[in-house]
């Protein structure tokens, strides 16, 4: 491995995105938002009229994905570009998230995105956010963290995020969606969502962002 890696895995809404950004900024390391790659593959498929079950066509889309992450000023998350088009907000919709969960279940799509993810491990280091960062993509990572939280709390967080993005959704529908997506991510044959054997599991239910960050910094071994 070319640079030190800290992996942060866990289900949707466990707080990975926020914590990954804060940790990467604090360490001055690169960041990999692997979920964005699955979301971009899904968006490219939706735009190109590719069936979400056409594994070969989706893998080829994933392999050729023209994706770019542009750092934003201040504390804003990076802008995400697909073929030069800013799709930062579009990939965060529930439609795109649901399609991403479907394409992420396909082994050929996962294989197509593997090397692209590993290429993010550059000096001085990488904080990688996903579902299989510690189990499959970076099995030799120096520190592996798995964040969890109750389904209700994760739905509440997602609800607030979507409201901030100006999307109107029902909380009850979100709880059902989150549970269905978790089930699919956990039970798929290809790289299912699960903590690596050597991962440190942190339950973020009821914790503030600062409290989670303190525990994650300690677990990362970079304090
Ligand atoms: O983290 P996210 O919500 O942006 O991820 C979108 C989807 O992609 C989610 O259903 C899980 C899947 N995913 C995955 O299977 N493996 C990853 N490393 C990251 C995301």
What is the CATH top level name of the largest domain?
Answer: Alpha Beta
Biggest sheet strand order reads: 2-6-1-7-8
What is the CATH architecture assignment of the largest domain?
A: 3-Layer(aba) Sandwich
Task: Specify Rg, calculated over alpha carbons.
Answer: 16 Å
Shape: globular
Topology-level CATH name of the largest domain: Rossmann fold
**What is the averaged pLDDT score?**
93
- Helix % is 40-55%
Spans of 5+ residues with little confidence (pLDDT < 50)?
A: none
Annotated CATH homologous superfamily of the largest domain: P-loop containing nucleotide triphosphate hydrolases
Count the DSSP helices: 9
The biggest sheet, with number of strands, parallel, antiparallel or mixed sense and barrel status, is: 5 strands, parallel
Fraction in beta strands: 15-25%
Small molecules held by this entry: 2'-deoxycytidine-5'-monophosphate
Number of domains: 2
**DSSP summary, beta strand count:** 8
Distance between the termini: 22 Å
Helix and strand succession? EHEHHEEEHHEHEHHEH
Computed structural class: alpha/beta
């Amino acid at each position: 491995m070319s640079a030190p890696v800290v992996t942060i895995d866990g289900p949707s809404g466990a707080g990975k995105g926020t914590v990954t950004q804060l940790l990467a900024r604090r360490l001055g390391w690169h960041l990999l938002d692997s979920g964005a790659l699955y979301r971009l593959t899904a968006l490219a498929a939706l735009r190109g009229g590719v069936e979400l079950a056409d594994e070969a066509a989706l893998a080829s889309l994933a392999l050729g994905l023209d994706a770019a992450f542009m750092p934003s000023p201040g504390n804003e998350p990076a802008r995400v570009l697909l073929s030069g088009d800013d799709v930062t907000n579009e990939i965060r919709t529930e439609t795109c998230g649901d399609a991403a969960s479907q394409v992420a279940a396909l082994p050929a799509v996962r294989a197509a995105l593997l090397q692209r993810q590993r290429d993010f491990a550059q000096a001085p280091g990488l904080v990688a956010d996903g579902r299989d960062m510690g189990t499959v993509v970076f099995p030799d990572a120096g520190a592996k963290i798995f964040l969890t939280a109750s389904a209700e709390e994760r739905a509440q967080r997602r609800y607030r995020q979507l409201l901030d993005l100006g999307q109107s959704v029902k909380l009850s529908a979100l709880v059902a969606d989150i549970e269905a997506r978790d089930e699919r991510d956990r039970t798929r044959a290809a790289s299912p969502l699960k903590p690596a054997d050597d991962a440190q599991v942190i339950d973020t239910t009821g914790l503030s962002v600062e409290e989670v960050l303190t525990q994650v910094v300690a677990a990362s071994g970079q304090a």
